[in-house]
Amino acid sequence: MLEVKHLEKSYQKDKPALTDINFSVEPGTFVAIIGPSGAGKTTILRSLNQLIKDDGGQILLDGGDLRTANKTQLRGYRRQIGMVFQNYNLVERLTVIENVLHGRLGYKSTLAGMFGRYTEAEKQEAMTLLEKVGLEEFALRRCSELSGGQKQRVGIARSLIQHPKVILCDEPIASLDPASSQTVMQLLKDLTTEFNIICIANLHQIGLAKDYADRIIGIRHGKMVFDEDSDMLSEEILETLYDQNVTEELN
Amino acid sequence: MISNSDDRLVMQPKSPQPRKIKLRNPSLSRYMIIGVITSLLLITGYTLTHLNSANVRVGEAFRGLMMTLNQMFLQPSAGSDGMVVLLQALGISLLLSIMTTVIGAVVGFVLAVMASKNLTNAWLGSSIRIFMAVIRAIPTIIWVLIFSIVCGLGTNAAVLGLSFHSIAYLTKAYSESIEEIDQSTIEALKVTGSKFWVIVFQAIWPTIIASLVSWTFIRLEINFANAVAVGAAAGAGGIGYQLFVASGMSFDFHEVGMIVYLIIAVTILLEFIAVKLRKAYIAK
Amino acid sequence: MQTPVNYLARKHWKQTGTIVLIGSIYLLSSWILKFDGVGGIAAIPKAFSWLGVNFKPTANSVHFLPSIWQKLIGTVMLAIASTVVASLIAILVAILGSKVTGGSSLVQTIVRGIASFFRNIPLVAWAMILLFSFKQSDFTGFLALLLMSVGYLIRAFMEIIEDEASETMLALKATGASYFQVIFQAVLPQIMPSLISWILYMIENNVRDATLVGILTGTGIGFVFDIYYKSFRFDAAGMTVLSIIIVVIALEVLSNQIRKVIL
Predict the structure, then answer these.
(1) Which intervals hold domain ABC transmembrane type-1 (chain B) (predicted)?
(2) Is there a domain that residue B97 lies in?
(3) Cβ separation of A123 and B20 shorter than 8 Å?
(4) What is A1-80+164-251's CATH number?
């Protein structure tokens, strides 16, 4: 279980980016975080694996606090938390399977990892996962030759091979066409159930969030304004969440 | 709470696979990278082990070097020439570099327009490009020395030598920028029946002005370094000549230090202006 | 008030101003530097005819050919060696100093300062200082080129790392990979082609600069040219220039081919 308690963050003094974020997620749940640009969605997501250092609160993964972990402990937590990026963040010049295997680096000794020595079992698992995301034929292709949707599926396979408890998706479909977006969202939903993991995704597309996510968290000006099952999301709530006039008044 | 053991995933293959799973296909680009790195390292190894050290004791030489550097950077002084002479010489070198950059930019732009693949016929374009490649291949200092045979050692040779290299360099840089322009921009003006040079100044010039400014300032920085070098190696005057005299004839390293500080000040100033200008033009 | 009409008028004045500025820079500097423009233009055809005459091999200059090529190849190898050693140093320093992979901001500032310092000391100064301590040896040329290249390459490599590796770096950091794993598995494979492209460019550049260093320090091809030039053996000097042209262009073509394959 992932619990976030009283999470705070500000980039500049007196201009909080996040104030008092609280939520907890059970395994097997697909959560979408929605809200206008600049509301703090990315900040929340990146605080969860401490790529951004927040200013206060608790982030508990099965009871252990990431925020107070030392460097080695943090690496231990990070390998249990997969991450999927908007721009895929693959090493474009390496092959698909090499990029998937990068997800194993956190489990390896520094030396074995530096020189990319993977066991046959790990390679086999990488192939199994590529099959799962439908890319087994592309294993030996360079990532630079793939389409955006395919790259994102490589990114998902890379996060799965970490054996994660949580997968964080930072705008996973923002750079994709509608058809690929559907594929990727369906894949994330299926994998969440199949591996009984927590999947948290920042999304701009409200429609897709409603269709695929189990639960939706709405963020506005760094505050949670909505946290319900996805079918509870109504037009009125969306209006308050995205209303331009209200935004200007608050500024 | 779920466990994080591996058995959640389909780990065991149904039948043990006899062959190892490959991570890469052989690719030309990979072999090329490995080949280039290996051959560079081999050449380096060979060269360093066969270096003609002319019986110089390296340890002693390094100690000497440290002493020289100490004299230069910690105790700089204007020496026997005095600050006024040094500043004058610095000004001459700077002026030389500005002038040759201006010549290089004007002539280089005209040639670049004529050499760009999207503007001109292939024959004219490629002959200019080949000619410029030959000019670029001759080091600046040798151009200056060649010109000093035909018009005597001095300003004329220095200006011509530096300009030649600048022209060749800027022609290449500018024409690469011109070739990046979207063909439709040019066609839009062509269909209005505009004359060639009108298109150049109304469509091409404004489109690439930022990269023109950027390349010109890079060349100005190079030309300043070259002006110093030419002064020293060809005796063409300026701060480079003062540097040569102080370090190679009078061995006054305090003065060398002062000269180096002056040169660094100018190069940092040029770099600063270049960064500011680039920002200003990108903002537009 | 900014109207289209006076905007265009102002633009027109700006253009005229630029032309006047360029013209006056030219005239003012010709006057101060005592540059004779007409004589200068007249000298250009003379220079080319000089090259034309002296590029023709004579019985005398063919005689010098083996020693010219021996020195030239030596110079190219020296340029390669100094660039490679400089690159090895520069990549380490650049990893330490870049915003993406680097240490604390203090380390980054120090690295930037050092790189800028080495870059801005003129090559001539390095050559002359080193000549004083290391005498007339290949080692002097090697060190001068090395010190100069290090400054340039550190800056270039840092920019490459910051441009090309920051996203993958982040992704691997998020998997829990350690620092060295990230460097070797993500950063280096990602930047390798750009790195090699820069190294090749630096080699081309160093071959040209080696001529200058050679003239100053009495080594390599620069020294050979200087001797022929000063003893008025222009046919041999012309042969040297021709050889340099051939080698530099061959290197340029070769590196362009390599770039095409690896990029």
Answers:
(1) 90-274
(2) yes
(3) yes
(4) 3.40.50.300
